[in-house]
Every structure is written in structure tokens, then in C-alpha cells.
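Quick one: C-alpha cells for this chain, please?
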Amino acid sequence: MFSDILVFLSKGGVLMIPLFICSILSLAVIIEKLITLRARKVLPPEIEKVVQNYNSEDNISLVTTVCTQNKSLLSRIILIVLNHRKLPYQRMKEEIVNNVRQELRSLEKRLGILETIASVAPILGLLGTVVGMIKVFSVITSQGVGNASALSGGISEALLTTAFGLTVAIPALICYNYFIRKSEDLILDIENITNNLVKKINHTKKEDEYAAPE
């Protein structure tokens, strides 16, 4: 199988090498994102449940324990919220936004690779086409149009690089758009959960202030 790949790459010329590398990188990123962007991995149901059940300062210990044991993105964000809960409401929101923004960037990590490959692969294929056609015209200039085997080599190189470039770029573009949409949906869910928790904490703080003896 490996020898077949080498034969295929050699027929397409030197530009098949960067295209092959792009295909491997693209496949690696796609597999990694299929694993890391699963909803249950980013938003574990047990974390959502303890956050939904939060109703007083007495629940802090339970929420902290569950989030500490869980290594998901949501658990890290909930811990950020809890660590800033004693600040005044407006400042608490500002600190949470600043810290959470850094965590949310991990959802789109390495998606830039897919975007770059989706843009570069067709251009590399087109460049391969140009190189192949240059070889064809060089053969015509030196040997005329009678040498069909020599001409077919350049034409084959031109067609293979174009086809391979599109074959690499199309899945990369489709997956990039899918993962971007998936990331945006997860971010909206995280923001919703976080905002609800912040409101609950603020409501609890107000209740404690009213209940405090004068």
C-alpha cells in the first residue's frame, strides 16, 4: 500500500508532497475535533445538573468537588465563576468574561489549520497544473507533438495535482465550517449555563445581605 502511494505521488510531481502533507494534517485535525467537540465531553451532564441545582452558598462545596473531579471545559469555567463569586456583581462579570474568553479559545484551537489547508490545497493543485502544462509545452518544443508518451506525463501530472488538491480542500472546507458552527453552538450553551449560575450567585448574595442582622 505504501509503495502504491509513492507511485501515485511520483506521477503527480513534486507538488504532490505538500498536498500529501496537507491531507495528513487535515485528517489529524478532523479526528481530533470529532473527539474533543463532542457535547458530552465539553458539557458533561453531571456538571450541568449540579449547576442547575445550585440554590445557595451551601451548594458551593458540592459544585466545586464535582467540577474539580471533572476535567471538561465547562467544569473549568464553572470553577472560574466560583472563584470570583465574592466580588461585586459588575466586577465579577468582567473578571469572568476576561478569564472565560481564554478558555473558550480552546474550542477553536487548530481550526485555523483546516481553514489554511482548504485555501492552500486548490492553489497547490493549480500550481501543479501549471507546472505539468509547462512540461507539456517543453516536450512539444523539443520533440514535437508526435511523442505521445512524453506528452501524457505532463498532462497526467497536471490533472493529478488538480484532482488531489480539490480532494484535500473540499473535505477540509466542509469540516472547518461544521466545526466552527459546532464550536459556536457549544459557546452559546456554555454562556447560557454560566450566566444562569452568575445570576443565581448574585441572587443568593442579595438574600444573604437581606437576612444579615443589622
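Residues 2 and 8 are 10 Å apart (CA to CA).
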